[in-house]
Amino acid sequence: MIARTIYRLTSFCMGLAAYAVVAHAATFSADGAWCSPAGERVVIDGADVTTPGGQKSAGRYTEHAYVFTVPKGERDGGKDLYFEPIGPNAMKVTTIAPVQIEPGPHDDWERCRGATS
Questions:
Q1: H helices present in the chain, as ranges
Q2: Of the four listed, 14, 87, 104, 107, which is most buried by Cβ atoms within 10 Å?
Q3: Contact, 34 vs 110, CB < 8 A?
């Protein structure tokens, strides 16, 4: 009887933990308009990105970030921008060169106010 109760309780806790992990993963979405402290704007719509220079590019979701390569001809062209959530309306954005080992400094971007994406 006690063994069955412990088994049921353990199964319930494991199921609850699995649900929490899946629910957290499903809530991360970078979609929308993001503004930098310098006034730059990036619009993310799934795999489609509109860069601060107005160019269209493609991005991808990783486990903990959204990343895209800045098109040539724009500031930081050829480098990757990593958008990592730090809140529901804030992202830490880090620029990383293709051969760079350590991440460089980052900026905190926010959802653009009054913007439609």
A1: 2-27
A2: 107
A3: yes
- Provide the residue count of the chain: 117
Strand, coil or helix: 93: strand
Please state, in angstroms and rounded to a whole number, the distance separating the CA atoms of residues 44 and 57. 10
Over residues 15-44, the pLDDT tens digits come to 554 444 444 445 578 999 999 999 999 999
* 91 close to 73: Cβ distance less than 8 angstroms: no
Host H or E run for residue 34: strand 32-35
Q: Which of 13, 20, 18, 19 is nearest to 5 (CA)?
A: 13
CA 88 → CA 25, 32, 51, 83, distances in Å? 13, 12, 21, 12
